[in-house]
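To fix ideas, we quote verbatim one protein's residues and fold tokens.
>
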Amino acid sequence: MKKQHLFFLLAFLLPTIIVLWWWGLFRTPVMNMELRGPYRYAYLEVQGPYSKLAGKQQEVAAELRKQGIVAGKSFTVIYDDPRKTKSGERHARTGYLIEAGVTPQPPLLVDTIPARRVVVSEIKAHPLIAYGKVYGTLIDFSKREGDVLHMPTVEIYSASTLTVEMPLEARP
């Protein structure tokens, strides 16, 4: 019986724990208050479930390549708290950071977010794990401060690191 337990540990449990460790399950997000920005980005609007963001971001990447524009880090602006907004009513922008002198053509849109003070939560982890951990940290911070999650948040994903910036003040 003991050999079976050892076999189970070595064959299944240990590899599973190693994969979850590699994906970042046991990491804790780092949180700071910082001055961030400005950001200039090319994007497409998304309305509806946030599950559409990855596909729309791929459309932006393809369009930037077609136009000969180098895409920077992936960049998403989330306008609605998914805990309070129905899936079909959510709004976001998703795309990529771009250089100052570049002007993408339609269907791409361009905007700039000025420098501002934000709460930054960051983690190096697989996206399936990273988003829950980072937003959980921001929600906990907001509760400790006697406040709510301020929107819009900015999500920057690069080299397996997710950075989410929450403004210190709610949008007007």
Summary: Residues 2-23 form the longest helix (22 residues). The two ends are 65 Å apart (CA to CA). The chain has three helices and eight strands.
